[in-house]
């Protein structure tokens, strides 16, 4: 099927960061056409963004409810097919639910919902709806992260023994939420962000990456969360000890107060015979370590990488692809799956490799369990859904 | 002015590499809409690509001549405004000339033309046409390359003394042109590529980068070119000693037979008090070296970089932007200037910072002078236009 | 005072690793002359090593007790003045005690003793003896580690908020102690090594580095230790959450089963305005990170580093100094202090900067507290001496 | 044979840099005992250094002539056996000649002599004398440089096609010789240093490294030398195009005015199937690149490296060895060969791998040919001895 999917967007109005990223990602591979949007709860702002994006003013809405209902009334060949939801966390559940139940596929920014109960419910709604659902855990979109998962899955490092994930940031080193920084404000506000700050915003990425690459699931954890900057309302730093379902151990940490750090999310997984190591600051490189043998440097765009890495790359080795391309990989794979569905075809294994509702539920459980553990005097807290 | 520019494309049919890159670059920032194309001289192939891109079949042409003439006949609000030319080098001149003379702005892949005489002529045509012209020397689109130029220009390393540029590749380590590799075939064929192989294809990039970052011009050179792989028809490796117009010295090298190398184009410029160093493999980092002081690590997306770096970045520090974004920066700046023209406004200094006809002529002169020097027994060959 | 100190050695016979390192370190700066040794409990082996080292056979002893008693009987201008103890951990206490009580200065390999009680006792013996005592926590001998401590101490990163230390190794990925590997055998044997394996051997280094660079002391910890390789008797992997006496948080990990890792001990300390980062694999570099400013790359041997870094460097910047030089720095500083004592002069601040009994006691307490925490169901275990 | 060789030193008095390095190198592996010296032409200064080194005042001489003659008169079991010559270049020939002709083995700092004629003569003297001769081209002492040579020699990268060597420094960015800097003064003074400045001082190291690792010999060159800093008397920067005896091409550059650079001497050799890359700033790593396969990271101290790398390493992988250890490797191998000679045994291949007179002659020829080429209008100058 050779046409663009019609895309609508909820959120992403003036001052937003991630909305623009979603739009570039959707545009990158020519798989989507943005046809409508409810970009802000403030009507003038929604219109402003709609105009900037040159949308038909008739299809720029003042609320997602209006958008979903009005789009539904349009003819099948006109109305949006996929909706991207890029609002603060507190809007995720209601808007996703309404979209799915009215027949739209959903791409949702992470974390999935405001709390675990909502996430579980949303997962059921997804399953019941028969619609496709993508949760944009960006980092699993990188070709070398996919290669890492592939190498582990193939047994090339043996049974996994140790998993380390890290997400160091420094942008909240000062009390930025007291300035007019929109990003800082909602992310540190419990009523918008949920029960966790740093752990919800970026700890979930580290958690997702750890499980994705290792192919394992966390079964127990022990968290130490901190509010480092005086006056902040949610955690801005934390470390979590982890136990996995095959007996492996590990830990992750996330922080927003490591002054001078940017966004160098990292994952390392070690097994009986070797290890894999990836970090965003050198995102087209995957180190494959081997016991008593030279480390091998795997690179994006080469002939020797797996079909999972190749499928998610646009240029030959040495032309760096980055964050926007990783994000676009999720959008592209989601589009390929939506189209396969429209054509009643079986999607390829490589296309199905985008994060979904299960990742979302586990991410929300991670947040709840981490908060529970942090409050507990007991060392270990079970990771239960 | 808030609308997309209407873009046509010449070249970029099935099997092409750079055509797809141009299309992604044009799409990235929502500044262009591809409306027509003459993607291949083989009619079926042009149609195939047009269909894949979901173009109106009426506007998929069998030749660029047809496209230019037919588009010209369309009404002003429908016809293409900018044409991207992404063919092998031998088609650059004629198609650019025809496009410019018929009122279309041109984005042309490098090198500018088949030879220097054509390049000079094309530059005159550009100037006479009143149309805008961009030559896609990709690497000057990187934010940290722009920062490097800015730092040098500001005098932050003092008067420039030494300039080093390198473009190491390894993909032509074997006689790939004997296989059915389209990229290798035309790039090593004198009738398609021109008088130079490696020096024309990638040496020109190193040359352009050296002059761009240093702010200097080459006045003399001494070249040693090699055909390393037996059976190849054009140079696949070479080193060139350089003298610059302020008295500085330096060299560049380019090679396609450094087995295991990818595309790590690099530039280093040293002055009386410090130096700047950039390489594509770590493209979001600029090292600023200082005599007897610590090296400073400048990074894309930070608050402390110049307006030239900031204007050409989409995401905060630590979310890697790469080759496609650098390419897109040229397209975006070109669009901003075209639109400024349509609105009779003065473009900003940051927008004007894309490579143009002067870069193209100098690049072609570089090729001719390098070939002349390689054949000469004299050490130094003057760099004259 | 311009003469070499007379050095004796306990341990370091055939098959030992660290003994040879101590000897090179002592020799490096011409401050010591090895005059005697009790290199092994097996008499033939002690003689073998003594011969290899060209010692006077009269001064090669079959036990440390014999060495101490016989050397004591020699005239003051002949007998050893300093003794290096490089045996497995179970011998540390008795031999150090005897040496100190008989008038010899002691350089002791870490960890200080077999258990905390011994360490405290030994510290008292040191203080009572009036003799000098050095515990060779190698990594604080690196010039850039000293620079890191200096920068933190000067307040250049503000009040410390977060401390991370890591010691990843992979050499015990397999059950090496079942082969005839002497190093693996004693280090994994509770009767030789003490209650901890990995945490005692290398976790103590990470702990020492964390406290040294941050200038803080651990007050609480939460440990998760693992025996990863089946059949092993002591921990070979672990992570420890840390609380510090100024309210800062952090963690350390140490592992000997991260297949493909070598010895890349690392420390990162972050404060209110910046951070410092050092790792052994790039040991002559110290990254100084700053909030919203470029990272600065400090380098060994430069003009701009502190007197602590300069004093501990032999060659100009860019001539890499490494592990043996770091080790030698402890030996050299210890010699300078011993000599200052002999001359009744005040040692310089830079000379006094070698690890001593206090570091040793804290290291042993770390081992005991980590083991206690690992066994506890409570999250936090107080760090008490 | 288990005893230390008796070493004398010519040069290396107060203010010298390389003399101290030689002494540490000689001491490192316990193979030498410094027994005498003529450290300076200024008598008081020679005595000062002799005292600092605790030498027998009877064996601290005021001139090398005196030292050689007096030492010769001592009994065979007392007199020096090896002499280290670490003076400025103008003294190299006479002192080496006298030492060799009077029966002493010689370790000489590079470059070999003041000019090529002397070098050739000295090579003949060495051969005639039957004494051993080592020229301390430090960088071939690094284990990973030896591994690089081994890999090339084994054919693991195929027939060599391209050779690149670089020695960037920045310490002469200013006119340091006008201050009281002893190092800068003699190195930029034609009467002490010879006809070349930068090319003699460090270009020769790059040249030596290029030939050593590639296993090839330069046959033609084309040099561009510069005096960048006004007022300097000798070249402080230059690039040299190279042709090798198997048809390979390449280049080297050396500079002392690349502000902010330290001593990152680098070599890269590419063949038909791969390449090797080494640089001093990461001296324990050797990159082995392969066409269409992952780069392999070879590391000092591992189990998988060659006997040449292993023999020249003291500590396990991940404990960085550096410049002093590389230097010491030459001293140690030289000692092993001298001792083998004393015992009428055949030295091992690994021991013989230290630079000698042939390297010295080629280095001096390089200097002369580079200067000749720089002055010539012809592109290529033959490299003849």
List the helices and strands and how they pair.
The structure is a homotetramer of 385-residue chains.
Chain A: E1 5-10, H1 18-28, E2 32-38, H2 43-52, H3 64-73, E3 82-85, H4 92-101, E4 105-108, H5 116-129, E5 133-135, H6 143-153, E6 160-168, H7 182-187, H8 190-193, H9 198-214, E7 218-226, E8 237-244, E9 249-255, E10 266-271, E11 274-279, E12 285-290, E13 293-299, H10 307-311, H11 323-342, H12 357-375, E14 381-382
Parallel strand pairs in A: 1-2, 1-3, 3-4, 4-5, 6-9
Antiparallel strand pairs in A: 6-10, 7-8, 7-14, 8-9, 10-11, 11-12, 12-13
Helix pairs in contact in A: 1-11, 4-5, 5-12, 6-9, 9-12
Helix content of chain A: 25-40%
- Write the CATH architecture name of the largest domain in chain A: 2-Layer Sandwich
Strand content of chain A: 15-25%
Strand count of chain A: 14
Oligomer: homotetramer
Key descriptive features of the protein:
homotetramer; 385 residues; alpha/beta; Rossmann fold; Dihydrodipicolinate Reductase, domain 2; five-stranded parallel beta sheet; 12 helices; 22% strand
């Amino acid at each position: 099927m050779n046409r663009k999917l019609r895309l609508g967007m909820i959120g992403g109005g003036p001052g937003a960061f991630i909305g623009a990223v979603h739009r570039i990602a959707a545009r990158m591979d020519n798989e989507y056409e943005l046809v409508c949007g409810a970009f802000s709860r403030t009507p003038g702002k929604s219109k402003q963004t709609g105009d900037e994006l040159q949308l038909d003013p008739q299809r720029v809405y003042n609320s997602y409810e209006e958008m979903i209902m009005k789009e539904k009334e349009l003819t099948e060949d006109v109305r949006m097919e996929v909706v991207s939801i890029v609002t603060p966390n507190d809007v995720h559940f209601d808007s996703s639910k309404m979209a799915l139940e009215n027949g739209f596929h959903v791409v949702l920014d992470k974390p999935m919902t405001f709390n675990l109960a909502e996430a579980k419910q949303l997962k059921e709604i997804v399953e019941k709806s028969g619609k496709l659902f993508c949760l944009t855990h960006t980092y699993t979109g990188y070709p070398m992260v996919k290669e890492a998962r592939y190498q582990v899955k193939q047994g090339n490092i043996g049974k996994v023994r140790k998993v380390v994930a890290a997400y160091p940031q420094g942008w909240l080193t000062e009390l930025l939420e007291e300035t007019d920084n929109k990003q800082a404000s909602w992310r540190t506000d419990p009523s918008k962000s949920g029960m966790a700050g740093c752990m919800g915003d970026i700890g979930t990425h580290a958690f997702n990456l750890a499980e994705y690459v290792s192919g394992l699931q966390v079964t127990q954890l022990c968290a130490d969360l901190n509010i480092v900057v005086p006056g902040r309302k949610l955690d801005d730093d934390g470390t979590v000890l982890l136990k996995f379902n095959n007996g492996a151990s590990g830990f992750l940490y996330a922080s927003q107060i490591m002054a001078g750090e940017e966004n160098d999310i990292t994952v390392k997984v070690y097994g009986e015979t070797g290890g894999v190591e990836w970090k965003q600051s050198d995102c087209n490189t995957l180190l494959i370590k081997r016991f008593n043998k030279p480390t091998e440097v795997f690179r994006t765009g080469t002939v020797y990488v797996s079909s999972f890495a190749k499928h998610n790359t646009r240029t030959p080795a040495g032309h760096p692809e980055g964050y926007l391309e990783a994000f676009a990989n999720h959008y592209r794979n989601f589009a390929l799956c939506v189209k396969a569905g429209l054509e009643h075809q079986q999607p390829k294994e490589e296309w199905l490799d985008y994060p979904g509702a299960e990742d979302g539920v586990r991410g929300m459980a991670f947040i709840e369990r981490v908060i529970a553990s942090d409050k507990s005097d007991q060392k270990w807290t079970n990771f239960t859904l």
